[in-house]
Amino acid sequence: MEILTDVTIVLVCVGVIAKGATWLVDSASKIAKRLGISELVIGLTILALGTSAPEFAVSILAALKGVGNIAIGNIVGSNIFNLGFILGGTAIIHSLKTSRILIVRDGFFLLFGTFILLFFLWDLTLTKFEGGVLFSLLILYLGYLYVKREPLETKQVMGKMYWWDPLMLIGGLAMVLVGAHFMVESAINLARYMGVSEWVIGATVIAAGTSAPEFATSLAAALRSRYGMSVGNLIGSDIFNLFGVLGVAGILNNITVSLDARMHLVFLSLMVALVLVFMRTGWVVSRREGYILVMIGLVRWINSFI
To answer: Does residue 87 sit in helix, strand or coil?
Structure first.
């Protein structure tokens, strides 16, 4: 009976998150155009920060409780899920256009950060100092986005914004976050019924649950032909997860993880590199490449439970 209840909650949360994401993407796009800000920058910052809130809440709480495998596993698994299932799945629905700015500035920064995290966690511990380094790099990145905008991003046609658009932005974000919260709680219960480890829970079920906002917002953006916002949201969310969430978590408490972390971080590094290659081929992530990313994510998911 408890399993049926949790499954029902998960399904209801999917609908709530999907509706909230529609409001979020529509209102963010209108606000961006009205302020003369490109949708790519909005996706990389506002939407990425907002949709990373579930990861932030789960990982910070886990870090404070000393459950390092869930704190780190959630972020590593979420980033892999974003690039495999979500980016790949969105590309299957419609090929996603990319740009030199997104690859050189944002994609390589994500790859750099992934290598840094792999180096920091090779001894299976993320110290407070290392957490501070990660968070400092995020501040520098955001400062760079603000100070040095590319010409492509400054040429934005002003659009019309209504008074209710900010309210829809806040309401949509609230629906996404509340839905994700209850989805994660139910997903954790389902995973425990299966008797799997904390790392597996963090890197798979919890990661998938906290990635629900990224999936909903990226899918909604792609269906509305806002490809810059769709891809930018995923890359930006992964950047916020890695530098922001783990940075703050590390600052608050030294985090220790199991040996499984090394393998998953190596896998994540290779995944990021592959995505950058796909983004560069013809400046688009094609449907074929989307299928490849989804299959890689699926294989990794199955392997985690073996």
So the answer is: helix
For residue 155, tell me if it sits in a domain: no
Cα 271 from Cα 84, distance rounded (Å): 8
- Residues 39-95 pLDDT 10s: 667 666 666 666 777 888 788 888 988 889 989 999 999 999 999 999 999 999 888
- Residue 44 is given by DSSP the state I
- For residues 87 and 221, the answer to whether their CB atoms sit within 8 Å is no
Q: What is the CATH number of the domain that holds 11?
A: 1.20.1420.30
DSSP for 63-97, please give it. HHTT-HHHHHHHHHHHHHHIIIIIHHHHHHHS-EE
Q: Is residue 111 part of a domain?
A: yes
At a CB cut-off of 8 Å and minimum separation 6, what does 149 contact? Answer: 41
Cβ atoms within 10 Å of 248's Cβ, excluding its own: 18
- In this structure, are residues 16 and 179 in contact, taking their beta carbons and an 8 Å threshold? yes
Closest among 238, 216, 220 to 44, alpha carbons compared: 238
Please answer whether residues 54 and 210 qualify as being in contact, where contact means their C-beta atoms are separated by less than 8 angstroms. Answer: yes
State both tokens at 239: 């950047």
What element of type H or E holds 302?
Answer: helix 287-305
Domain residues for the domain of 116 are: 2-150+162-305
- Structural domains counted in the chain: 1
| 256 strand-pairing partners | 125
Between CA 223 and CA 175 the distance in angstroms is: 20
Model confidence, pTM: 0.83
* Amino acid of residue 53: A
